[in-house]
Design goal:
Shape: globular
CATH topology: Rossmann fold
Distance between the termini: 23 Å
Order of helices and strands: EHEHEHEHEH
Number of helices: 5
Radius of gyration: 13 Å
CATH superfamily: Response regulator
Number of strands: 5
Strand order of the largest sheet: 2-1-3-4-5
CATH class: Alpha Beta
Low-confidence stretches: 126-145
CATH architecture: 3-Layer(aba) Sandwich
Largest sheet: 5 strands, parallel
């Protein structure tokens, strides 16, 4: 299906994201900090980027802004998946140009719904509501986490 770049400083959350996305038949590539994430985005041309706001090296909102300015990455959908549940985190994501902000929780349906929606939209499908912070129910993490 799609190639998705996961940029997160937390190895556990990278593994959770990998498990969820590979369970949906996506190819997952990873980076553990913002600067390396920018380089991977330019070199690997993913179909979607999932990133955290609080990244080492380059904050997630700054990374998103830089991705929007780069000709080769400007059109790649970005989902910010963050522990920042407050309005400030959401505002940072919107202002930076993210297509969706999803608050982290252990209910992963909302994350997968936003990923599916942005991928469909970037492929010419119909957009759906993007900026919900209320986590959806379902799917659980697959695999040994």
């Amino acid at each position: 299906m799609a190639r998705i770049l996961v940029v997160d400083g937390n190895a556990d959350f990278r593994e959770i994201a990998r498990s969820l996305l590979e369970g949906e038949a996506h190819e997952v590539i990873e980076s553990r900090d913002g600067l390396a994430g920018l380089q991977r985005a330019v070199e690997d041309a993913p179909d979607l980027i999932l990133l955290d706001l609080d990244l080492p090296g380059l904050a997630g909102d700054d990374l998103c802004r830089r991705l929007r300015r780069e000709p080769g990455t400007a059109g790649i959908p970005v989902v910010i998946w963050s522990s920042s549940f407050d309005e400030e985190g959401r505002a940072r994501a919107i202002e930076a140009g993210a297509g969706a902000f999803v608050a982290r929780s252990f209910r992963f349906g909302d994350l997968l719904e936003r990923v599916r929606s942005l991928l469909a939209e970037s492929a010419g499908g119909w957009p759906t509501a993007m900026m919900s912070r209320e986590p959806d129910a379902e799917p659980s993490v697959r695999g040994p986490i």
